[in-house]
Write a structure and sequence with these properties.
Blueprint (H helix, E strand, L loop, with lengths): L2 H28 L5 H28 L39 H18 L9 H24 L17 H19 L12 H20 L7 H29 L4 H15 L8 H22 L10 H19 L2 H4 L10 H30 L9 H6 L1 H6 L11
Helix pairs in contact: 1-2, 1-3, 1-6, 2-3, 2-4, 3-5, 4-5, 4-12, 5-10, 5-12, 6-7, 6-8, 7-8, 7-9, 8-9, 8-10, 9-10, 10-12
Length: 414
């Protein structure tokens, strides 16, 4: 056991956990005040529900050994050997120096599983039934997140043991899946009665973005799985990409509107963080600078383009996380440095990794959209369940309608 590596992984796990409350503030500040509690509760209850599912069967499906015997499912899903975390090692590191199959691994990967469905909620805030969301989360983690995590990180067909795609900390597993599911949800639940971004608390947005940025050092740095130079590079390129994307977004806004928006800069930082996530283990600082520049510009115009459609992805989940994650995955193939990643990217003269990044990312995007759409479609048809709150409840606000609480109560004293 190496106490230094173990301490770092436990710290990284706590940092990644902190990202979900950060997301709650980020999303909560963007919605109307009458749905602030509901929006924060979506993230809060995701922590609770996913923890239970991860313990009972989620980890086993994602990181258990490949189901064997049938070539059709080889590399597709883990087996049931770790149901209820049975057989998990409590020694943090085994004789080969690996955390795999240990309690530290369970904890760290649990935090990734928690934040992913929480990201999706930004697409349908202010109009989605809270109880239906909890049911959706259970099914989605089982049928989408766990299989995709297995494909990429659990020995499945996409990652190092398969196609060889680079996804250091979740561009495919987290951002593309969340963004794709967000489109399916926004399509099925429909537009808000009064759509449009009307932030109730811009300081919450900036606070939430700052917490997310802080937690992302554990997200990407922890994915090195050791406290070493690999983690240092991952954290450094994370900072560079986020800062570059935030600055790029702010400058585009200045040139087009004459103002630098706090919400815009915060959103740009998140886009840069999402984009560098898959590439943090394969690019150098100049590559991170290019990724951040691309994320700030591409995601900015993706938001503008989607706002001109009838898709009411309320908090721009697809434009920021889906497009940002897709750009980051492809950029990993462009800017990969052999001395860091072990493979050559396009800049070093090889197109092979770009192709691998592209087709695996698009395959996951399509799979996630189809399965998410089916899950939501079925839930919407179940009598007494459904996806959308009533028009009366939407107009009233989901804080009172779904929770019987309000973020602020004006008693007339002020």
């Amino acid at each position: 056991m190496d106490s230094g590596h173990t301490a770092w992984m436990l710290t990284a796990s706590a940092l990644v956990f902190f990202m979900t409350p950060g997301l709650a503030f980020f999303y909560g500040g963007l919605v109307r005040a009458k749905s602030l509690v509901n929006t924060i509760m979506l993230s809060f209850m995701t922590i609770c529900v996913v923890t239970i599912i991860w313990t009972l069967w989620g980890y086993s499906l994602a990181y258990g050994p490949n189901v064997s015997g049938d070539p059709l499912i080889q590399g597709i899903i883990g087996n049931f050997s770790a149901l209820g975390l049975d057989g998990i090692r409590w020694d943090p590191i085994d004789s080969s120096g690996s955390f795999s199959g240990s309690g530290v691994d369970v904890l760290f990967q649990m935090m990734f599983a928690i934040i992913t469905p929480a990201l999706i909620t930004g697409a349908f805030v202010e109009r989605f039934k809270f109880s239906t969301y909890l049911i959706f989360t259970i099914i989605w983690i089982t049928l989408v997140y766990a299989p995709v995590a297995h494909w990429v990180w659990g020995g499945g067909w996409i990652g190092a043991d398969g196609a060889g795609a680079l996804d250091f900390a979740g561009g495919i597993v987290i951002h593309i899946t969340a963004g794709s599911a967000a489109v399916a949800a926004a399509l099925l639940v429909g537009k808000r009665a009064n759509p449009g971004l009307q932030p109730n608390n811009v300081p919450y947005v900036l606070l939430g973005a700052a917490i997310l940025w802080f937690g992302w050092f554990g997200f990407n740095g922890g994915s090195a799985l050791l406290a070493d130079g690999y983690a240092v590079n991952a954290m450094l390129v994370t900072q560079i990409s986020a800062a570059t994307a935030a600055t790029t977004w702010g400058l585009i806004g200045l040139f087009t509107t004459g103002k630098i928006s706090g919400v815009g800069v915060a959103t740009g930082a998140i886009a840069g963080l999402a984009a560098v996530t898959p590439a943090a283990g394969s690019v150098n600082p100049l590559g991170a600078l290019a990724i951040g520049l691309g994320a700030g510009a591409i995601c900015y115009y993706a938001v503008e383009l989607i706002h001109r459609t009838n898709l009411d992805d309320a908090l721009d989940v697809f434009a920021v996380h889906g497009i940002g994650g897709l750009w980051g995955c492809i950029a990993a193939g462009i800017f990969a440095v052999e001395s860091i990643a072990g493979v050559k990217g396009l800049i070093e003269g090889s197109f092979d990794q770009v192709w691998i990044q592209a087709y695996t990312s698009i395959a996951v995007l399509i799979y996630t959209f189809v399965i998410s759409y089916v899950i939501l479609f079925v839930l919407d048809k179940i009598p007494g369940l459904g996806l959308r709150v009533s028009e009366t409840n939407e107009n009233q606000g989901l804080d009172l309608a779904e929770h019987g609480e309000q973020a602020e109560i004006n008693d007339g004293a002020n």
